[in-house]
Write a structure and sequence with these properties.
heterodimer, A: 482 residues, alpha/beta, Fumarate Reductase Iron-sulfur Protein, Chain B, domain 2, FAD/NAD(P)-binding domain, 3 domains, 5-stranded parallel sheet, 18 helices, globular, B: 300 residues, Elongation Factor Tu (Ef-tu), domain 3, Rossmann fold, 7-stranded mixed sheet, 29% helix
Chain lengths: 482, 300
């Protein structure tokens, strides 16, 4: 990648503006799955790093769910000590190349940045990605591991929460096995987030890093069916971390939803990302995308689905969201990417039924206009249907991206594990401790659908708590019963 | 230690997990494989299935668990070669490894002593019906099995079905063996002869399950079907396998695969099974034209 930017004296750069990150042109990118955002060059990273004021009481760190020492790693970039910079990041974050790409920094660290008061905040995510990518190209540095403790821990689910918990526990010297139900490790990072936003080789490299810490992986192992939590203890594990995620797709519950051509976003993305059906028939799993695609929902998953559909040859992709542009939950950056590529949005509209042709495939969707009423429990104004405003929109593919609920399998077979009415596992916020001794949890299975980094934060907190639990258990066991 | 592992150790060999131990042709398109999968064999119950993947490019294929043996750690799978993925699986030989094998998945059948049970099955569906018939027999039921196929050459597991049934009836579409016609007709005939079934299991092609379900509906006989919709992950994540049961949407992988036949929307199931055939043909053509064809083992 070429750049015209060179490191310049501080005074020559407008300190209020962040260095932009180069992206592929919308026209060239919307027909393939190549990564869209290209990352900073060294020169760009150095200019951006110079903008950091190195606040003595850094508020950005408070905004980071895993507490990365942001000014410290940025200072190391300024000094061109890139190896030390990535080590500094990895003290707190085991998956920096992923977080640098998919974290909503604008809601977290960057939201708190002092620079943001008068201009752009520091592009912390882009700098994190820069040092992580540089390290991966040079070969991964392995963080030192403490001496073996003899503790044996089972981690259920190889998603962001599980991978983080596993890495942290391994670094502390514990023997960790990750049980993953699918054939690949990574969870939502492999089945959900598309290649053009998070290349799978980057996920693989981060998983390889966790493996190099000594963590063992048992793929194709659906806990709750192959082994129960109780059986894991019988197998000699001292503690269990459940990070089974929010994997179940929600549907609208309106007539015609089971017609052919209507996918849950999960099915659509699993086929495209995990099964690589964008390379069908070279890969065996097919995907069918028509000319007119409607995506229902306004989150990041909806954006990902819409952009995948476009790349798979759809002529027109329309995102249908029941509230207005102001309330859309997707990251501004993702909505912008989608619109740049030619995806349209229909705000204040919701589907009421799907209409099929004779063969049972969807041919149209009926939409009703919505208006915003009083704020609901989420604080956002509640969308209310406008009577008699129904219109028919011709579609041949529909992707329903309205959210995911917790996977119920473990909860349904684990006696004594307390859950909420929403199906999430009840646990202590700070530690992830559940109602069963030695069983911890974190991520979407505890909170409901949230972000990659918040799941990682929970994995981290649980790892710390599990470590303390094992130490205290050892001490208790060491005292002979009186 | 299983006998299998013991024998292997005597020979100085260690069996890798998910190795194919034996392979057998049951009918022109139907093959049976035994796979070393001790963890699955230890947990499997009648009515459950596995999902496997043959290679890095492969689809996730759901297959019903036919037999399992805790002692030897082996499981038996039976499949019909219809598309690219099952043909690829059919190319594997004994000693080959199955790349990914996850299971047991799905809910086990609700097996208890109902009294008089009918197990009605057709085609390769017999493979899925056999473990249920066996479990019903072991639970003390009187088991009347009715198995069918297009012709005699396509009947599978006849001896096995006979061993677990008190009575076994056979039907073929062309009359080459047993009753000429459909299994549902045999069931209708038995009901007319005053067989008072307490439960009927119907497992086979969706049309056969629908017809059988219509036979038992007027008599309000509890009838269960094992559904075979398209699945991707098989763990509740994708919803490709959604079926309408009693008017509400269920996922066959985690809510099933067994459902009450009389509440099942078979027409919808049939329509949803018809989504991908053009792509399946395309994939098959693409790989058949590759040098060496589908099978990369170079033994074919």
């Amino acid at each position: 990648m070429q750049t015209t930017l060179k490191p310049q004296p501080k005074t020559m750069v407008n300190q209020n503006n962040a260095v932009p990150m180069e992206k592929l042109e919308p026209k060239s990118r919307s027909t393939n799955f190549n990564e869209v955002a290209l990352g900073y060059t060294e020169a760009e990273a150095l200019i951006e790093a110079q903008r950091c004021l190195e606040c003595p009481k850094p508020r950005c760190v408070e905004g980071c769910p895993v507490g990365v020492e942001i000014p410290a790693f940025i200072k190391l970039i300024k000094e061109r000590k890139y190896d030390e910079a990535i080590s500094k990041v990895k003290e707190k974050n085991s998956l920096p190349a992923i977080c640098g790409r998919v974290c909503p920094q604008e809601e977290q660290c960057q939201k708190n940045c002092i620079r943001g008061k008068t201009g752009d905040p520091i592009s912390i995510g882009r700098l994190e990605r820069f040092v992580a990518d540089l390290e991966r190209e040079k070969g991964l540095i392995i963080t030192p591991i403490s001496k073996p403790t003899g503790g044996k821990i089972a981690v259920v689910g190889a998603g962001p929460a599980g991978l983080t918990a596993a890495a942290d526990l391994a670094k502390l010297g514990h023997n960790v096995t990750v049980f993953e139900a699918l054939h690949l490790a990574g969870g939502v990072l492999v089945y959900g987030i598309p290649e053009f936003r998070l290349p799978k080789k980057i996920v693989q490299a981060e998983v390889d890093y966790v493996k190099k810490l000594g963590v063992q992986f048992h793929s194709d192992a659906l806990i709750g069916r192959l082994f129960t939590i109780e059986e894991l203890f019988k197998k000699g594990f001292d503690a269990v971390f459940i990070g089974s995620g929010a994997g179940l797709p929600m549907f609208l519950g309106i007539p015609g939803e089971n017609l052919g051509g209507i996918y849950s976003a999960n099915e659509f993305l699993i086929r495209v990302n995990m099964m690589k059906s964008y390379r069908f028939p070279e890969f065996d799993t097919p995907i069918k995308v028509g000319k007119q695609v409607a995506v229902i929902g306004g989150g990041n998953v909806a954006m990902d689905s819409a952009r995948c559909a476009l790349r798979l040859g759809a002529e027109h992709v329309c995102i249908i969201y029941r509230r207005s542009r102001e309330e859309i939950p997707a990251r501004a950056e993702e909505l912008q990417n989608a619109e740049e590529e030619g995806i349209t949005c229909k705000f204040l509209a919701a589907p009421t039924r799907f209409i099929g042709e004779e063969q049972g495939k969807v041919k149209a969707v009926e939409l009703v206009a919505m208006e915003l009423g009083e704020p609901d429990e989420s604080g956002r104004r509640r969308p209310v249907p406008v009577k008699g405003s129904e219109i028919i929109m011709d579609v041949d593919t529909v992707i329903v991206a309205i959210g995911r609920t917790p996977n119920p399998i473990i909860q349904s077979v684990t006696k004594g594990l307390r859950t909420t009415s929403r199906g999430t596992i009840i646990a202590e916020e700070k530690t992830g401790k559940t109602s069963i001794e030695g069983v911890y949890t974190g991520g979407d299975i505890m909170t409901g659908e949230a972000t990659v980094i918040s799941a990682m934060g929970a994995g981290k907190r649980a790892a710390k708590a599990i470590n303390e639990y094992l130490i205290s258990k050892k001490q208790t066991n060491a005292i002979p019963p009186s | 230690m299983s006998t299998y592992e013991f024998i292997n150790q005597l020979n100085g060999e260690e069996t890798d997990i998910h190795t194919i131990l034996s392979k057998q042709q049951l009918s022109p398109q139907v093959k049976k494989i035994e796979v070393y999968a001790p963890e699955i064999a230890d947990k499997a119950k009648a009515g459950q299935f596995v999902i496997l993947r043959v290679d890095d490019e492969g689809e996730r294929i759901p297959l019903t668990l036919v037999e399992w043996e805790n002692r030897t750690g082996k499981i038996t799978l039976i499949f019909q070669e219809v598309g690219l993925s099952t043909k690829k699986l059919g190319c594997l030989q004994a000693k080959d490894k199955i790349m990914n094998l996850a299971g047991p998945l799905g809910n086990p059948s609700t097996i208890r002593n109902y009294g008089l049970a009918a197990v009605v099955c057709g085609g390769v569906g017999t493979a899925a019906a056999y473990p249920i018939a066996k479990a019903l027999k072991e639970a003390g039921n009187t088991v009347v099995s009715i198995m069918g196929a297009r012709n005699e050459g396509l009947l599978i597991l006849e001896k096995e079905m006979k061993d677990v049934s008190d009575e076994l009836y056979i039907s073929t579409d062309d009359g080459s063996k047993g009753h000429k016609g459909f299994v549902s007709e045999v069931l209708k005939c038995l009901i007319a002869k005053k067989y008072q079934f307490d439960i009927v299991y119907a497992i086979g092609p969706p049309l056969m399950m629908r017809t059988t379900s219509e036979v038992t509906r007027p008599y309000a006989i509890k009838t269960m079907v094992s559904l075979n919709p398209i699945m991707v992950d098989g763990m509740g994540m994708c919803g490709a396998c959604r079926v309408s049961i009693g008017g509400s949407t269920k996922f066959a992988c985690i809510d099933g695969p067994e459902f009450d036949a009389h509440g099942t929307d078979f027409d919808e199931l049939i329509r949803r099974l018809r989504i991908y055939p053009p792509e399946e043909r395309l994939a098959l053509d693409y790989h058949e034209k590759e040098p060496g064809g589908i099978c990369k083992c170079r033994q074919h």
